[in-house]
Structures are given as C-alpha cells and as structure tokens.
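Subject: two folds for Thursday's group meeting

Dear M.,

Sorry for the delay on this. The cluster queue was jammed most of the week, so I only got both jobs back this morning. I'm pasting them in the order they finished. Each block is the input sequence followed by the predicted structure tokens. Could you check whether the formatting survives your parser before we put anything on slides? The first protein is the one we discussed after the seminar.
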Amino acid sequence: MKRSRIFFLFPLVFLVLGLTGFAEKSPVDKARITDPSASFFDVAARRAELASATDPRVLAALKIKHGCIDSEQPVPPTGRMVIPHHYLHASNGPTNPEEAKATIPYRKFQDAVTDGANRYVATGDHAEAVCVANLLARWAAARALLDYSYRESPQAWYQVEWTLSSISLGFSVVQSDSAIPAEQRKEILKWMHDVTEYMFDQDPHPDDHARENNHAYWRALCAASVGILTNDNKLYHRALEQYVRAIGQMNPDGSLPLEMARHENALHYQSFALTPLVMIAELASRQGTDLYSVRANGHTIADAVDFLVRASANLDLMKQYASEAQTFSIFSGKKPPAWLEFWAARHPGKPWNTLLTQPLIDSTIGGDATLYAAPVK
C-alpha cells in the first residue's frame, strides 16, 4: 500500500513543479552583468558620432543650454518624505497641484544630474562629471530618499522610483570619468544601492505578481541600473525577471491589462509603462542580453508597442477597455514620449520618421534621448 502511494504521488509532484514554474527555466536565467562601467549606451562611441552629426534634430539637441554646473543645485529635503497623491481622487481624473509643489526639489535634482550627463556626452567636460558626482554625494551624505513609508505616502514611493531611475542612469553616463574620486563614487553607489533595497522593502504586496503595473516596471529599471552600477547580479536578475513577467502578462492584442484599467488615461499608461521596459532592454543590451527578442506567453515587447501605435491611430480600439475619451495618442501632434527615440533607433521607418521631429528629453530616463540615441545623419 505504501509503495503504491509513493508511485501515485510522483505525477502530482511534477504537476506542481510545472505549475509553479520551478521545473521551467526563465529565458533570462543565464543573463549576467558583464561590464559594470557600461551605461545604457556607449558614451565614448556616441561622442565620436556626434562630432560628425548632420541630422537637424541631433544638431538641435547639441545646442545644450544647461549643464550641471550652471543649474540650480537643490539641497536634499529634510525630514519625513511625504508627498500628496498625484490624483485628487482615486487613480484618474484631475491631478493634485500640491503633489507638483512637493516634488519640485526632486525634479530639480533629476534635471541637474541629467543636464550634466547631457553636456558631458556632448563635450567630454570633466567639470560636468565632477558636478554631477558632487551633487549626488551631497544627497548621499544626507541619506535622502530613505525616510518614507508606502503606507503613509504611496506617492513618495513612486517619486523614489522616478528619481532613482533618473539619477542612476545619469550617473552611469559620467561615472567612469577620471576626475571623480574612487571613494566618492563608492559612497554614491552604496547610497543608491541602499535606496533601491529600501524601495523594494516598502512593497506591501511583494509576491503578488497580479498587482505589477507600471510602478513595478519602474522599480525594475532602478534594479537594473543600480544593479549594473554596483555589479549586483541578484538585483540585475530581479529586473530582468520583472521584464519577462510584464511581457507575459499582456492581453492577446498587446495591451497591458493593469494600464487598460486607467479609464481616460489608459493609452497614456500603456506608453508610460513601456518607458522603463524599453530602458531595461537598452541596459541589458549593453550587458550582452537581447531582451527585445525575449518571448513570454507568445509575446515580445514589440506587441505592446504595436498596440500603442494601432490604438493611437484608431482610438475605437480602446472602447473595449475604457468608455472615456483618451487623453493621449502618439499621433496627437504633441511631443511623443522620449523612449521612442531608443525604439526608433532600433526599428527605423514608419511611423517614427514622421513622428520624431524635435529633440526628446525625459529626465527620468537619463535626459536627452535624442542626444543619446538618434541617428546622427
């Protein structure tokens, strides 16, 4: 009797292993950090390309008005980090002007760091790298971005995602400059790593993958960026696993389910969620891993971009998800999102060649995307 019970349990064990994913390896399992000094693009090679630029958009991007040196140097806020919610009610509708006021120091911080990174790429000026490092060192010494609670202020948690993404990507551009003291660099990276770990510790639902919307992707971008900077493969791998889950959770049409629940902002959040996913793919590419071709549940990231394009061209496609008129379309005539610069560089042609008509800048992904990625001729 005991023997038959044991044999009966074998199929059940293998079924459970299969359902939990234990028996199936992730497509990014073997991915590793190969170069901690690599940014999300080759800084030296890009500077050489820019020297012979003829493309009007790139030439316009090269006319940088501000760097770190001549920017406002924001002091780190003191006291508990509490930020009002972005929306006045729930997760859509009118936005809260008090949130915009509370985030001013963080946005100025992001701008100073990424403006310095921009000018450093364009000119190679050591002073810009030093300015960025000195500013980051002051915030690190103040232990900024480490005194908040998700339960007290979810918006503070979100702001940390965007600020950490911005400054870690910006620092990755200048970090190898010879004028930055090794000890200062070490202190900055330790602080960024602490901020990243604390950010993940604040997650109220750490094992509930069904709740992973764009914020989980932004945290993953921080994990990828800081993981590479600090040569932390565990952190880096966490980011890549999140990327794979995001791709695998798409609807059959390429839309991202939790972003489609955002009423009039649903299409905006489809694009917003793609921002960190594209940047994770760019970082991984520099470490020898092609996330753009990774397939999960039959999808690649291209399916999410394709849905964004199709739904922007035909907003009726959004009616199955939201009855409200959409606030966003990449064909609205307004500036398209800056992540498209990186996407278009890898996927040239329509509709990007008609959409991209001016430099695109977003401090949360390192600054001037046109300067970093657009074809120079």
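Second protein, same layout:
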Amino acid sequence: MGVMMQAFHWDCPRVDGCEFAWWPFVRDRVPSLAHVGFTALWLPPVHKTANIGGASMGYDPYDYYDLGEFDQKGSVKTWFGSRQELGDLIESAHGHGLSVVADMVINHNGGADGEEVNPITGLSRWTKFEPKSGKFTRNWECFHPCPYETWDDGTFGDMPDLSHRNPYVFGEILKVARWLVEEIGFDGFRYDFVKGYGTWIVTAIQEYRYLRNGQPFKPYGVGEDWDSARTIDNWITETNAWNDNPVDAFDFPLRNMLKALCDVYGFSLRNLATWETVVQKQPLGAVTFVENHDTRDGEKPIIRDKLLAYAYILTHEGYPCVFWKDYYNWQLGKEGTPHGIAALVQVHETHAGGGTEVLRADDDFYIMQRRGDGEKRGLLFVLNNRGDRWNGAWVPTQWRNIRFSPVAWWSGSDLSRPADQWTQADGWGQFWAPPRGYAVYAPES
C-alpha cells in the first residue's frame, strides 16, 4: 500500500520557523521524500479557521472554501500559506508520484460571525456563518440541536457541531469533498473525530462519483477513531458495509502496544504476537503509526528507543504512517544510512510483502517472516529486547539454501553490521539482532 508521511506536527509553522509558509517548506522536501520511497502526504486541515487566540492548526474550520485567498479571520493566508502555495505543493507531490490526503474536519465549526437564539433550547449560540467565499453559509439549523436530529454522537469542545442530516449540510459537505478532489487535487481524506457523527456520511463521501480529467476517481479514506480494537473494527465494518470504496482506520491499540514496547521496562515480546490490534483483525484496513499530532502532551509521547516501533510498523502488515516531527525534528530519518526510518521505508517498499508469520516470540527475543508477494520477496525481522548483548536464535523459515543480507538495523549501543546468514536445506537458519535493537534481513535472489 505504500508509506504515508504525516506532513505536519502541532504548531509546526511556529516551531519550525515557517509561519504562513509551511506549504513551501513541505514542497521543498517532496523530491527527497519520494526518493526515499514515501508514496503519500497527509496534510493538516487546509481551510481558513476561527484563529481565536492566535493562528490555528486548522481543527476549527470557518470557511471551507478559503484556502488562503480571502482577507478574513486576521489574515489572507492560512497559517500554512496561500492557496497558490498549496496548489504548488500538490502539483509537486503528484509530479513525484505521491498522493495527497486532506484532513477532513466535518464534526464542528468555529469562528461564527454572529450569535443566534436556538428556538429548541432558548439559548444563544455562535452559529451564524457568513464567510467571504460566499459558500456554505450556515445558521442555527445547520448545528445540533436542530429539527433534523435529536441526538449528537459526540461533541468537540464548545464548538457547534454540524447536523449532517440537515439536507443542506449533507449536500454542502459533499460539494466540499468534490471540490477538494476535482479542483484542488486531493487524492483522499483523513476523517477527523469520527466518533462525532454517523458512519453513513463517510460512506457517502467515499462513494461519491468523482471525476478527474474526465475519468472516474475514487479517493482514499482513513478514519480517526481513538478507541479499542473491537470498537474500531466495528466502525470499519459498519462504514464499509455496502461501500464500494472502503475506508481504513488508524490503529490506536497498536500504538499503545508500541509505546509499551519502547517505554515499559520488562515488556515481554510475547505481547507482539497476542496484543489485540486493528491490524490483527483487519490487516488491509489498518493504518499503523508510532506518533501523531495528538500524542504530544503529558505521558502520551514515546520517550525511549522509538526506532523499535518504526521498525515494527514498517516491516509488518498494515499501511504505515510516519510522523514528520520524528523524521525531521528528532532526526530519526537518518537518510543515507541503514539505521533510521528512511532505510525502513525502503525495506517496506522493496521487501515487505505477503502474510506475516511469527517464528519465535519470548520475553526478550522476537523473529517474524513476511512471506513475500509478487516482486517483494519477503523478509525476516529480528527484535532483541536484551540491552546487554547481541541475541540470536535458530528458526524454521520458508526459504531453503538462501543467503540473507541485513538491509536495515539499529541499536542504541552497537551499530555494527549484522553478518550475512544462510538457511539450510530444511529452511532453518540462525538470525541475530544487536542489543536493545533490531535487524531486518532480506533473501538474495
């Protein structure tokens, strides 16, 4: 499926010194990302926002049709740049073979232009929206509570929640999606906070009959449902029922497992084969990740040895998503070496095909094989949780009399290249990983 880059982090324009110029900043890195092997960019919400209390990351949309061209809410540009600069970024990404995913925030709005009394509650709320684009104007009937729905699935802060069952709102959301795909050039959607609305609206957006350059086009889709594996699995199943353009979901339970792997002393690697995750239930519907913009506070970020987690998602099944801040700001990309995310992305794109089979899993040692599929011949992934020495074991592989070479490896204490290994006539072979580190071996053709 490729590898996605989440091309932003929280307050990235300010943190990276690119306020109102994030789009050119990302565009300049597109050629190197494509060269490494990334296949998609997930961008932050592109619409003009409320900007209450300062420039916003985009999760409080005000004018869905202002991508940085109307003078409203304190600026012409969005915090990320102008519409022209966004277009240049998308054009560059497409020119280098990368698709571009839009962050679709359709649960709530912010920055209304006026208050209205809701006759159902008798309370005054900020629900009157008259954006300068002149499109998708809104009043109290567009938000909960309203005549069209008696139940709001979930609220997000104090911002008014859109009522998707209002025919006008439903139609306008589809128009926004069509505009983003057909005119702006987005190739898919990341659906923000899907707990706040019915699965049917996502299905409707996915199934809309889009045309690009006169040809039918189906956008990619992935939902953010921060919950248990069972709940996410149910959301995927319900959203994709009677849907000919299925949607994926982020694997939050897997991320919890990866944090434990990296940060919990004495974590048993047996858990890697038994932890309940989305990828375990629906490997073709899981987007795996290590960090994102919402894991930034308190005890949420992974503190130790994060490359172990990236080695896991970039060798196992699922659609992996890499976090910009990890790759660039924390310098875990390590392009040009076998020791970082860049090498693992290349491993994913070259070798990580076919089903997964765990060959050994004990407290301190884990080996799995990807069986290969088509041009991807498969791999062996070895993880060592002992911090005092190299660790190895004999395991029964599917390959006979084959030489294996290490293609990616890392340890916080020993970056020595693992030795090549041979499997015997019966498929058994011995494979090693460095202290508190990993090694990925690929079969030679």
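Two things I noticed about the second structure. The chain has two domains: 4-350, 356-443. Residues 166 and 319 are 34 Å apart (CA to CA).

Cheers,
T.
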